[in-house]
What does this fold into?
Amino acid sequence: MLWRHGQTSWNLERRFQGSTDIELTETGVAQARRSARLLASLKPDAIIASDLKRAAATAGELAALTGHTVAYDSALRETYAGEWQGLTHEEIVGRYGEQYAAWKRGEPVRRGGGELETEVADRAAPVVLEHAEKLPIDGTLVVVSHGGTIRTTIGRLLGLEAHHWEGLGGLSNCCWSVLGEGARGWRLLEHNAGTLPEPVLGDDD
It folds into this structure.
């Protein structure tokens, strides 16, 4: 399960955070507490998280309910986006219009001179796999990270070409995506969910 952090002031301002270390707002803390109560009911076996404050604080709410120690890893941080960081969406489009358009087309772009999305997946996906391999059978790992990092990690684990990762869509604050192991590898069971997973009843289970 990959869980995005709660709201920050830069989220509200549509300001590109990247690896900038921004704290949760009061609303973000409340979101994390609400979501943690739901996720704790799944009895997760382990929690890993980005070491940036917004993810660490979100993970801490779940750890407080489960008693687990959070394993923090800088490899789970959000994409470093260089000169884009701290800019609003409008400022990015105004100053880096060509670069932004190329990124939206799915081209490999170092936004603001930062990381490629494939490089983010290169660092984050192995950490998720390493911890998933330590789980008991049918165990649950909660990964607390950031929207961009979660999307690229899901794309990598599903074996999708990087060009198609944008098709997964974003995650709202404190929402999560659920991956499970299927007969042919990883499957995306839920995406951008804010309620507990429900069994799939029908012909596609």
Observations:
- The radius of gyration is 17 Å.
- The beta strands are 2-4, 46-49, 70-72, 141-145, 176-182, 185-193.
